[in-house]
Specification:
Structural class: alpha+beta
Number of strands: 10
Strand order of the largest sheet: 1-5-4-8-3-2
Length: 377
């Protein structure tokens, strides 16, 4: 009697070739499924639980479109791409387990595959190439320096242990280096630092946000995973309707802008919080901060939904939107910005944890100057 094979290596449902183990994407995203590519051109993601197949499907389709969300949403299944899946996949052993159980452990994982039709692949490639050219042009003259990799601990190094008291002392002293070393020794450091955001003093929260941005930029050179986990916690906390996201959106802006090369894909998720009036100003501030380093990341979002805020009754909103539009050189808003050049209403603009009082008109004039520079270039 022929025995049924219990395990087998995973394969591509389109070409039948064995596929390699999925791995973390180069750029971090809000939903982080491990991903891979088959030699036939199909891309795939791994959902180890089998409960998140919808999210995995979206992530895989976007990956197939070279992270072009707009293109992905315009595509139609069958007409533009094919899908496939391999079930009973065990991510730990990288095997398909036909019995759906191994050593008493249930196996319910799914590999989800997407393969674009050739015509769509060509469109995606051309769009990607154009975006890279635009990004290069937009980033000329912008500081894109990446922090040096933090040194590895010396042999025999005694690991430091984080505590509420130690973290607070380092934060109060503004000791970036001390916090970086503590983060690399004890991963609960960032969680303890996050708790300090629950402070009624606005100035303390803004300073802490700037400090966390500097710390995370350096920690990410050696351990981006724990920074990514912090981003997830912050996004989850901001989405909790029963809680107030004190300082959290500001921290998101500081972290993403500090390492756009790793965390830039998180940018579009900030727009989810524009529906709440209590977080709108913080979101626009965060987007403007990111735009100062990577304007192309804002251009990849539906930023045009912010145009009407130039007539907002709150001067802070008018000023921050003008700041953002100037940094992305939004020529389509030139006339609206011209109308604000005489607006002398004041608001507080925080930069690197330091407040400055500016006027809406001043911000609009600076935005127009940046737009004119872009037209000359």
């Amino acid at each position: 009697m022929k025995k049924t094979k219990i395990t087998s290596p995973p394969w591509c449902p389109f070409c039948g070739q064995k596929v390699s183990r999925a791995s973390d994407a180069i750029e971090r995203k809000l939903s982080e499924f491990k991903v891979g590519r088959c030699q036939c051109g199909a891309v795939y993601s791994s959902d180890p639980t089998g409960h998140n197949i919808g999210a995995a499907m979206v992530e895989t389709l976007v990956l197939a479109c070279d992270n072009n969300w707009d293109l992905a949403w315009d595509l139609m299944p069958e007409d533009d791409y094919l899908t496939g899946r391999v079930e009973d996949y065990d991510e730990i052993t990288h095997q398909v387990i036909n019995t759906r159980n191994i050593d008493g452990r249930p196996v319910r994982g799914v590999l989800y595959f997407v393969r674009l039709h050739k015509a769509v692949v060509e469109i995606s490639r051309r769009v990607k190439d154009k975006k890279e050219l635009l990004a290069t042009a937009a980033n000329q003259g912008v500081d894109q320096s990446v922090p040096a990799v933090e040194p590895a601990p010396v042999p025999g190094h005694t690991r430091l242990r984080a505590s509420k008291k130690i973290v607070r002392e380092l934060v109060d002293a503004g000791d970036v280096g001390g916090l970086v070393r503590l983060c690399l020794d004890d991963k609960k450091t960032l969680r303890l630092t996050q708790r300090l955001l629950y402070d009624p003093d606005d100035a303390k929260r803004w300073r802490l946000a700037a400090l966390l941005g500097q710390v995370c930029a350096r920690v990410a050179t050696r351990d981006p995973g724990q920074v990514s986990e912090l981003l997830h916690r912050l996004f989850e906390a901001c989405s909790d309707s029963a809680a107030t996201p004190w300082g959290m959106i500001e921290v998101l802006g500081e972290i993403i802008s500090g390492r756009t090369d790793i965390f830039g894909a998180f940018t579009r998720h900030l727009l989810n919080y524009m529906g709440d009036a209590s977080t709108q100003a913080q979101v626009v501030w965060a987007l403007a901060l990111i735009a100062g380093r990577r304007p192309d990341l804002i251009r990849q979002t539906p930023f045009y939904n912010l145009f009407h805020f130039l007539q907002h009754p709150d001067p802070q909103m008018r000023g921050l939107v003008a700041l953002l539009l100037g940094r992305i050189k939004a020529t389509e808003t030139t006339m609206q910005l011209l109308e604000l050049t005489g607006d002398e209403a004041e608001f507080v603009l925080w930069q690197a944890g330091v407040p400055a009082t500016v006027t809406v008109g001043q911000t609009a004039r600076e935005a127009l100057a940046l737009i004119r520079e872009g037209e000359i270039e």
